[in-house]
Structures are given as C-alpha cells and as structure tokens.
Amino acid sequence: MTNRSSNDQSLDDLLEYLKNSRAFDLTGYKPSTISRRITRRLQQVEVASFSDYQDYLEVHPDEFEQLFNTVLINITSFFRDPESWDALSRDVLPAILAGKSDNDAIRVWCAGCSSGEEAFTLAMIWADKLGVDRFLRRVKIYATDVDDDAITKARHAVYTAKEIEPVPENLQKRYFQKSGRDRYTFRADVRRAVIVGRHDLIRDAPISNLDFLSCRNTLIYFNAETQARILGRFHFALNRAGLLFLGKGELLLTHASLFRPIDLKRRLFSKADQPDVRERLSALGFEPTTSTPAGFGARIKSEIAKWDKVVRAANIRIE
User: E-strand spans in the chain?
Assistant: First the structure.
C-alpha cells in the first residue's frame, strides 16, 4: 500500500479547516472533484499549494465566499430533460393524486434546487395539473440548497429571457411577468407555495412525509459513502407512496434495498418495500419495472457506460 502524498494530506487539512471554521463540510464530495475545483481557485489567486491557500484564507476572510462560489457550481435549467417532465405530468402526478382525497396536502421537496428553475418547473406542472386555486390550497414545495447566492436568486425568482427559453410558450404566458429589460419574474401567487431555504444534505435533518422528492444530478458530486447516507435520509423522508426523481447521471443500482426503479430511463424510483406504488402506476398506463426482464443486465451495463461518459463530460464542462 502506498502512502498518501503530502498534497493529499494538505487537501485533507484544508477541508478540515473549512469544516471547523465555517461549518462547510466538503469531505463527503468526491476528492477528485473537490481537488480540481479548489485548484482552480488557487490558480486564480496565484497560490501555490493547499497549505498556502489555508494561510491565505486566514488572512483574507472575504476569500471564503469566492471559494464557495467556485466549489458550488450550479448547472440547472427549466424543464431540463423535457421527456422526463412530460412523463411526470402525464403519468406520475395523476398516480400521486389517485392515492389521495381531494383535500389531502401534497408535499414536494426539490433538494439541491440551485437558483430555483427546477423548483418552479415543479410548481408549474403541479399548478397546471390541479389548477392554480387547488394547487395553492394543497401543495407545498420545499426548495433547498447550500449555496446562499443561488438561494437568493431562487427567492427573487427573476430570470432572463434566455433562462426561460426552455419553458413552453403557453406556460411562459401564464407563469412569468416581464419585470424590466430582459427580466421575467415568476408568478407571485404560485411562488408563495415554493418555500426556499438553506439545507445541507449531509448535515441537516431531511424534510419528512413527502409525496415527491426531486434531487437531480446532485448525488454524482458525492462519494459512495455519503451518497448512501443521503439516500437513507431520502428513504426516511418519503411517505409510503412517495417517489424519488433523480438526474440522468444517477442510477442507484447499488441501493436496491432502499429504492427500486419505476422508470430507469427517466430516473424515477419508489421505495423498495412499497410495490403498491408501482401497481397503481401500471393501472394508469405507466410501465413500472417490477421484475428483472430478459436482457436487463446487459441494458444496465450499457446505461452505466453511457452515463459514465455523461458524468465525465459534465466534469470537464464545469472546470
């Protein structure tokens, strides 16, 4: 067994310093991702090593904010992966509603919401399905992230014309109001159903009794041990019929004891011990994955290879 390099130890020491001094815990992230992103900041401030950068932080406390902005890179958009959102609106939302009375509350969590685009996409499809009045009476959407700047943007809910381009034109007209040159504000009454706040998936207790939990392309930045801890919290957070919606880079193949795929292509999962959810979706015309079909193993290997390339490409793009 080879000894860890001094550079690795210096990175560990820096991460421990950030955790103790600013309660900012990066130790659960993939080391290669964190090393790459912090190194980028070192280059920007012309510091030679992780240990020198720790000294730099002690002398320049304003640097913490710049570092966090570099590490917490937000990649998001409205209706990202449109086919998945079409399936949610067409099949999944009716399945959730079928298991509830007309007055039951609906609780949704958008974890890792970044600047709010995904949370407001959820608001639009729920409001469109229920009608705005019933949506406001019944639905609460909790939108959380650890990036304070992203949370501030989500709370303001103001976006550029380019940022709202993925929103279908009919929804743009209903849910956005022009609020200045090249600025559009999300509809105020619907926005009140979206509760935006700071939440650390590693450190903070999960929101509970959820019908739907969206956490898309966030888990890929964590190491396997931390992913397992977060998924355990997600399992606790969802109610018996709750559904988990992940991003294309996330498969959960090693967590079959917690979650089973309903639609692997769209990364939709139910709690493994609740087969009635899949049966209800099937009755509504959805095709749940309730057993291992022929060729499934080969398809999984193909999916893994495909999305490994996606993750590698994403890492390259965000450097």
Answer: 106-111, 139-145, 158-160, 176-178, 183-186, 194-198, 210-215, 238-246, 259-263, 268-271
